[in-house]
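If your schedule permits, I should be very grateful for your opinion on a structural question. What I wish to show you is a protein chain and, alongside it, a tokenised description of its three-dimensional fold. Would you kindly read the sequence against the tokens and tell me how you understand this chain to fold? Here, with my thanks, is the record as I have it:

===
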Amino acid sequence: MHREFYQPDTEPLDQQQMVYGAIRGMLQSLGDEYTGFEEPKVARKTRESIQGSFEGVGVIVGIQEGEAVVAGALQGSPAFEAGLQSGDVIVEVNGAQVASVIRGLGPDEALDEVTGMIRGPQESLVRLKLRRPSEAEPFEISLKRTFTTTATVKVVRETELPTDTLALEATPGEAVAAGGDGEELGGGQGTGDQPVEILTTTLETNVALARDAIPLVNITMQMVNEEIAYLQIIDFNNKTPDELDQALAALFASTPAALVLDLRGNRGGVIESAQRVLGRFYEGTALYEANNRGEYREYPSIASPDHLMVPNIPLVVLIDEYTASAAEIVAGALREQRPDTTLVGTRTFSKGSVQNIHWLPDGSSVRITIAHLFTPGKHEVHGRGIEPDYPVSPSSDRDYAMPCVGERQPAEGQDDCVDAPLSVGVRLLTVKLSAVLDGP
């Protein structure tokens, strides 16, 4: 190839890219959309999302009209403590003009470039020059990077940022088991967007931030009313079960009589995480895995070390077309294994395959589908999904007005939110609770 390939310019052939291309082509020939190859940059993000941690400053970045815009900062992170605000435009990173770096790139490529510029070794400094809409002049800050853990408690933010795409210095993607090779359940297609507040306010300033360890927030918990609790899980990474224990301990101090579990938009995660989450709801089979020889392997639910269990109260699980993989298994398992569980929403994504991740010495990885997943009742998820008991699509009908939960915010002039699936779920639980109170 080096001897015969006609190349009009003087640049030598990139041997590494040729090898990557050969591996990618070989895996694509298998015809499985979830089997594939990840170059080191992408593979690093995958590993971090499974482990639930990375080194950075905790800033959520979006690409909007060719600029890198701050969409938010994780509470307690260097970016949060330095006062970065939604709507700040990142003009420079360590003296490099961001606009010049990302010019001509697509949103995903641009986001990779910007987040790569910001991230770096723990305790190292990164200098940002920012423009704030409400200010006349740019400013600089310096931040120290820290080691960031992706805690699964979700922060409620304001409105949605109209960016092409968003990332927290690296978008959390599909999760796989930490360590060497690992099995994973991620891979559904969700929006990946983080709802945030955008200020209608135009300042440039310089800031140096120390990179640090920053938690990613994936669990929201609150009371919908005096009787019904709301719990949202965004994904199933290695830290989710422990974070769920913390959330449940706080939530059940309020002694709710019923629970709404929101899995809408949950793209899946690690098999063991799903087992452990289910172990907070019941004891028994969590799922089955079938390999290419038709052999079934049973995975049990895994109890909390502190024996924390959700009481036997009525449960509604919210699902939608972005509920994928591990989240689909959890929804189906709860309906089959836990009494008084009702699924509300739309049919799930239908991704029920298991991938094994092989981490290669240069930091790249190969992902191979090794099995398909089944609920405890041996319902195959892949290609079929999970159907709700009560099909409910999103609606703008004010009859579905509810207290705002999670990151949802009311429309202008309104005090509440329109959330049809949640509204139906709460109504179902209210009827059940009324029946219990009325008795026979």
In short: The domain at 54-161+196-215 is CATH 2.30.42.10 (Pdz3 Domain).
